[in-house]
Amino acid sequence: MRLSVLVLLSCLCGASSLVACTTEEYPNPPATRDGTEDTGDDTAANLPSPSNPPSSSSGGDDSKDKPDDATPTVGPTSGVDPDKTLGELGSSEKKALCDWQAGVRGGYGKKTTCEGGVSVSTPKNQAACLQDINLPSCQATVAEVEACIKVDAADPCAFAVLKATECEPLRACMQ
C-alpha cells in the first residue's frame, strides 16, 4: 500500500509541495542499537548550528530532476524582508528563501525516514522549490514562514507544518 500526502513547507497546497511525505509499508525496517528505527539519514541531527555548520561545497544543478549537491550556508533568517508575504516576493527573494530553508534542513534533496516508513523530503533543488512557493495569493509573511520552517526542521517527523501553532498562517494558504 502506498499513500502520498503533499505537505507544503511554506503552505499546504494540493498542487505543489516543498516537503513530500510518502507512507509505505515496510515489513522489517532496520533498527539501531537502541531499538529505534534506523532512518539511514541524519538530516534532523545535522541541522546547521554554530557547532555543526552546514557544508558549503560548490556545484549543484538547477534541473528539476537532479538534487543540488551544495547545502546553502544559512544564518538565523533568510535575509528577506520579514514583513513581506509570500505573494509579494520577487524572484531573488524567493531564491534566498528557498536556499535558506534548504540550508536549515540540511540541503536540497534530503530525505528523512520516520517511524512507520513515512519519508519526509526537501525539494530536489532550487528550481523545484521556486515552483512550490509560487503562491501569489498566500498572505503568510516571511517571518511566519521562517518560524514554521525552524520548528519543522527541528523534528521533521513531528509534521509541524500540519500541527504547530507557528505554521497556522501557512496552512491558511491552502484554503
Verbal overview:
- This protein has 175 residues and is α+β, with helices and mostly antiparallel strands.
- It has one domain (2-174).
- The chain has five helices and four strands, in the order E-E-H-E-E-H-H-H-H.
- It has helices at residues 91-104, 126-132, 142-154, 160-163, 168-171, and strands at 2-7, 19-24, 111-113, 118-121.
Keyword list:
4-stranded antiparallel sheet, disordered N terminus, 175 residues
List the helices and strands and how they pair.
Blueprint: E1 2-7, E2 19-24, H1 91-104, E3 111-113, E4 118-121, H2 126-132, H3 142-154, H4 160-163, H5 168-171
Antiparallel strand pairs: 1-2, 2-4, 3-4
- The total count of strands amounts to 4
pLDDT average, as an integer?
71
Largest sheet data: 4 strands, antiparallel
Q: How would you spell out the order of helices and strands?
A: EEHEEHHHH
Structural class: alpha+beta
Major β-sheet strand ordering: 1-2-4-3
Spatial shape: globular
Total number of domains: 1
Q: Fraction of residues in helices?
A: 10-25%
Distance between the termini: 29 Å
Count of individual helical segments:
5
Low-confidence runs of at least 5 consecutive residues: 1-64
The percentage of residues in β strands lies in: 5-15%
- Kindly provide the radius of gyration, computed on alpha-carbon positions and rounded to a whole number of angstroms: 16 Å
